[in-house]
Amino acid sequence: MEYIIIIIAAIFVNNIVLNQFLGVCPFLGVSKKISTAVGMTGAVTFVMVIATMVTYLIQTYILNPFGLQFLQTIFFILVIASLVQLVEIILKKVSPSLYQALGVFLPLITTNCAILGVAILTYQKEFNLMQGVVFAIANAIGFGLALVLFAGLREHLDLMNVPKGLKGTPIALIVAGILAMAFMGFSGLV
Amino acid sequence: MNQLQNFTKGFIKENPVFVLLLGMCPTLGVTSSAINGLGMGLATTFVLVMANLVVSLIKNVIPSKVRIPSFIVIIAAFVTVVELTMQAYLPSLFESLGLFIPLIVVNCVVLGRAEAFASKNTIVSSIIDGLGMGLGFSFALTLLGAAREFLGSGKIFDTIIFPEDYGMLLFVLAPGAFIVLGYLIALINRLNKA
Predict the structure, then answer these.
(1) pTM, to two decimals
(2) Which of A30, A174, B55, B58 could form a disulfide with B118 if both were Cys (CB 3.0 to 4.6 A apart)?
(3) ipTM of the assembly?
């Protein structure tokens, strides 16, 4: 039951993009086509889950026992940056087809604040390892849901007759606002 | 390029938020009021200036293969400084900015300026560039924060303009951030063209 609440809260109520504003850069950057949106979601899910696990272990077994909590930001970002590199190298060797699909998105992930954000939130909410992993998966799904929905809307938007001044980013942001308004309907669910 | 142009380019012409569309997460996340926007902007400005300074000082020492990780470590160090200082002296601002303070590390504006400007230019022009970009970023965040605060609760910097009952709460909440930013970008595009 506890896990179901974590999942529903992370996907719908506190959607990571539309409610918490984490990962807005890839949300605006790679949402022009549904296929790239799906690829990006795959890469984010992969890195987010592994990063949350590793940063949790580092926080519990290295930073907390030695009283080094103030190094959290530096440690976490280094872990994420090296993890992304590592995942890239391993994927290239083990599964070239998956690497082909996710390849271009991986370097972008280091500066995706959703990854670092979820790692820090897991610590702030005092989750244990299992809850942290569930939380990371649910947030990745929430990210994917928002990204794919938005990509679908933008594909339609290309065919619309938009006023000249609003073409491009402005209309995309306004549509994202309306999408966020739709997600507000979920508030109070949990 | 003279230093004055170098300084002022961040405000309108190459504004990191309105024109380059960098650093969107804090832009949307913390601008529910003008004072939050300003606080976040100034914190980012400090990190930008210091990171630009250090990067341009040691640009010849860093091997180019590991430059991005080194930049990130330098930036993370200054973010930690901001985090601890703000927690000690401005606890209420620290509370309301919350998660977005550590997330300055992954703000693309900071890494972008270190990579694109500070790693190629002299110390003085790097500092000026960091200051200009940082103040341009603060300007954008304060403008967005003021617009949202005004529409949402009838106040600017906590000065009451019209009674709160007539405000549209939506603009203080998440959707308002996207919508107001969309219209502001359209407005700045128009100004840049003219």
Answers:
(1) 0.89
(2) B55
(3) 0.86
